[in-house]
């Protein structure tokens, strides 16, 4: 199974030619690259330096995210369907997530274990379905490794 939607989103990301070590794909991206489900956009965690390079670019607009009465700023490019943030919804260390990212098809992705933790934390119906998709994928990968 491969999704044309996902493929186009990853082409959009590649067009940005972002420097490795400065970003990682989070959100549904680590699931999308594995074709576990279709994505609607790409969420990136980025270093402050990379964020600063884009914040005055007219193709990118500010997007405020509210969490526990705390607001943090992101950027969104609606044409490319890509969003970038210097921190995620949690207190996780963004630099650590970027450093530990898994390289797949030349792009860095936050590890699935962190995606599962994040989705369990939010625990919406959609997030819990995603957790089950990841668990089934990991079980299948484990079974294939034992053949």
Summarize the entry for a quick read.
The chain is α+β, with helices and mostly antiparallel strands and 147 residues long.
Structure description:
The chain has a five-stranded mixed beta sheet with strand order 1-2-5-4-3. The mean pLDDT is 89. Helix 5 (112-122) packs antiparallel against helix 6 (125-145). The protein starts with a helix and ends with a helix. It contains six helices and seven strands. The protein is α+β, with helices and mostly antiparallel strands and 147 residues long. The protein has one domain (4-111): Beta Polymerase, domain 2 (2-Layer Sandwich).
> What's the number of helices?
6
Strand content: 15-25%
- CATH architecture annotation name: 2-Layer Sandwich
Return the structural class.
alpha+beta
What is the element string, with H for helices and E for strands? HEHEHEEEHEEHH
Q: Roughly how many Å is the radius of gyration?
A: 15 Å
What spatial order of strands do you see in the largest sheet? 1-2-5-4-3
Shape: globular
- The share of residues in helices is 40-55%
Largest sheet: 5 strands, mixed
List the topology elements:
Layout: H1 4-16, E1 23-26, H2 29-32, E2 42-46, H3 48-54, E3 61-67, E4 70-77, E5 82-85, H4 94-99, E6 102-104, E7 107-109, H5 112-122, H6 125-145
Parallel strand pairs: 2-5
Antiparallel strand pairs: 1-2, 3-4, 4-5, 6-7
């Amino acid at each position: 199974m491969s999704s044309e939607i996902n493929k186009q989103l990853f082409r959009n990301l590649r067009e940005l030619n972002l420097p490795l070590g400065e970003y990682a794909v989070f959100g549904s991206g680590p699931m999308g690259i594995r074709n576990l489900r279709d994505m609607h956009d790409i969420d990136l965690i980025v270093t402050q330096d990379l964020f600063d390079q884009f914040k005055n670019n007219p193709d990118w607009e500010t997007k405020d995210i509210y969490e526990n009465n705390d607001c943090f700023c992101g950027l969104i490019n609606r044409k490319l369907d890509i969003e970038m943030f210097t921190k995620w919804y949690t207190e996780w260390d963004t630099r650590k997530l970027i450093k530990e990212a898994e390289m797949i098809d030349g792009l860095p992705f936050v590890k699935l274990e962190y995606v599962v933790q994040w989705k369990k934390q939010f625990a919406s119906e959609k997030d819990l379905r995603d957790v089950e998709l990841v668990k089934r994928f990991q079980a299948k990968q484990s079974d294939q490794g034992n053949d």
